[in-house]
Design goal:
The protein is built from 8 helices and 15 strands. It is α+β, with helices and mostly antiparallel strands and 262 residues long. Strand 9 and strand 10 form a beta hairpin.
Length: 262
């Protein structure tokens, strides 16, 4: 499966960071952990993975901008392009020894995400997409689910933790959605939730108050797999607002209507 030079750079960087994380994951009980905020932990593994990604991505494309969870934002000499990076999405899972976390890399060009990679290193699953070229998992083409009935569909979301203010809205979402569907999953990685929608494992996903690095790669992977992705508030700027809803075409309107009926 040929890809652009930029995509190959992203794949190489994701695999290198993933190998580093897997090594630390095997010794998770020895990780030195510091507190960033209520329910939001950062480990030395997270920081080391971001350093690897920055060295690989910025080393190959030094004029691009940079936006990442730990390192913040840097303006590039090329104002039209930037990397959007989450070195470890699912940090809490990682620190608890749960093998459901990933490396997420997106490339933005003139405000649009044009390539994305989500690497589940624990399971050796690489989700990837480029604009107009389709979405893949490793060497296999991805397509969203073909289910069209809500009652047969499974959805994913993130349930706010640590007393976050959006918990009541999410509980209201669940109260409206759960009687209409086959189930709701909360697995602790927004990037992988979106990758799973692209793979047809979930029919849809929604969540509020995410960051650009949580969803940027997922946006293009879902779209290139044939899915719909929109902000929860129609007309809002998706990456800036961080409130997202996505699903396959057949159920998007029904699903989004339930979630938006707050």
């Amino acid at each position: 499966m040929p890809g652009s030079a930029n995509l190959n750079i992203m794949l190489k960087a994701a695999r290198k960071a993933g190998r580093s994380l897997v090594k630390d994951f095997r010794e998770v009980e020895n990780l030195q952990v510091s507190m960033k905020g209520a329910g939001d932990f950062v480990s030395r593994a997270d920081i080391a993975a971001e350093a690897i990604l920055k060295e690989e991505l910025m080393g190959a494309r030094p004029t691009y901008g940079w936006l990442a969870e730990e390192g913040g934002e840097e303006e590039g000499k090329d104002p039209t392009r930037r990397w959007i990076v989450d070195p470890l999405d699912g940090t809490t899972n990682f620190l608890h020894g749960l093998p459901h976390w990933c490396v997420s890399i997106a490339l933005e060009h003139k405000g649009q995400v044009v390539a994305g990679v989500i690497f589940d290193a624990a399971k050796d699953e690489m989700f990837l997409a480029e604009r107009g070229e389709g979405a893949f998992i490793n060497e296999k083409r991805l397509r969203v689910s073909g289910r069209s009935k809500m009652i047969e569909s499974i959805f994913a979301t993130g349930v706010p933790f640590g007393g976050r203010g959006d918990l009541p809205a999410t509980l209201q979402d669940l109260a409206r959605l759960m009687p209409t569907c086959a189930g709701v999953r909360r697995w602790g990685s927004a990037a992988l939730d979106m990758a799973y929608v692209a793979a047809g494992r979930y029919e849809g996903f929604w969540e509020r108050r995410l960051n650009a690095w949580d969803i940027a790669a997922g946006v293009i992977i879902v779209k290139e797999a044939g899915g719909f992705v929109e902000p929860l508030t129609p007309g809002a700027e998706l990456l800036e607002r961080g409130d997202v809803v996505c699903a396959n075409e057949a159920i998007f309107d029904k699903f989004a209507g339930i979630i938006r009926n707050a």
